[in-house]
Amino acid sequence: MTSNTPSTPNTAPQTARNLPRLLLILAIALIVAVLGGWYVVRLGTETTDDAYVDGNIVQVTSQVSGTVTVISVDNTDHVDANSLLVTLNAVDAEIQYERAKSNLARAVRQARTQYYQVQQLEAEVNQRQNDVRKAQDDVRRRNQLASSGAVSREEISHAEEVLKNAVVGLDGTRHALAVRLAMVDNTTLRTHPDVLVAASNLRDAYISLHRTQIYSPTSGLVTKRNVQVGQRISPGVALMSVVPVDQVWVNANFKESQLEHLRIGQSVHLSADAYSRNVDFHGTIIGLDAGTGSAFSLMPAQNATGNWIKVTQRVPVRIALRPEEVAKNPLRLGLSMRVSVDTSDTSGPILNTQTPIHPAYSTDIFDNELRDANDIVESVISANADRLSSKDLNL
């Protein structure tokens, strides 16, 4: 007896045949999901790898000419502000300084002499005035006695001649006094023209002597040292540069098509090629440049020519970094950076419109030069004027 039982179809070969198709569908779905997520993220960011670290390169120059005798630092050395960098031969400056001190002392003493001469001539004027009054009294008494014959006419004539001579002498002394007063009138010893000129020369000589020692205007690393011992230098020639490594920023060059959503104040995520991907930097956009890089190049492109080809322009965007991150992972000028800007917040301004209230950069190494010179001038004047009272000097 035969039984008819239904046979079960073998589906294993069919599933094996459909597996590559399923894997392909899954791969396409995964790729679409990744690209979709990447696109969503990209909607709120602008990125570029055309970004570099920038900073101040402070040139160290001399304000006087001279021969270099000492160089205190070299490339890669760290210096503080007001650190001695270069020393020049100071022999000539010392001679000029001592000569200027002597000239000021002599000017003070000559001014004192002029004040004394004024006092002397004032006393002579008083004496001449007394002589005139005496001669006038003699002439008057003799004229009163002339009617009685007690005084001869010859004696009266002689008294009148004495009066004329006294008047002429008074006029001459007054003119001499006016000449002396023209030199010292409405002045004191410290405001006398000769003293002022000599004091200015002394200040100039002192500052020139002080500037034979060249100090660092800021703290940072020394680079580009060009000066050598024994070299004769002139004012304004760059001797070396100091780079303040704590005052760096990033210039990111964005395409013109990326500028629409960039605003001042937006947060920035950065990474440096000099460090691993695990080292992150954070910053803020503080300004967009006034033009493209080609507009400020040494030879700007001439687009009016017939062979013009459109080139996508880039605009430098300045990014301030967090000081604590830079201190932890120092950056050098020119290092490449990768920049990603969060453009989700577009409420900030596009251009800076506020004028800075305080100077962005400054140095105080020259602040005491004139003050120290004034102290030297005052000491020289006091040493040569202590014999005159305040009344004598019109102080």
How would you sum up this structure, described in words?
The chain is an alpha+beta fold and 395 residues long. Among the domains are: 59 residues, OB fold (Dihydrolipoamide Acetyltransferase, E2P), CATH 2.40.50.100; 122 residues. The chain is built from six helices and 14 strands. Strands 1-10-13-12-11-14 form a six-stranded antiparallel beta barrel. Strands 2-9-7-4 form a four-stranded antiparallel beta sheet, with no helix packed on it. A hairpin with an 8-residue loop joins strand 11 and strand 12. Helix 2 runs antiparallel to helix 3 and helix 4 crosses helix 6. The chain is elongated, with a radius of gyration of 45 Å. The N and C termini lie far apart (152 Å). 17% of the residues are buried. The model has no long low-confidence stretch (mean pLDDT 86).
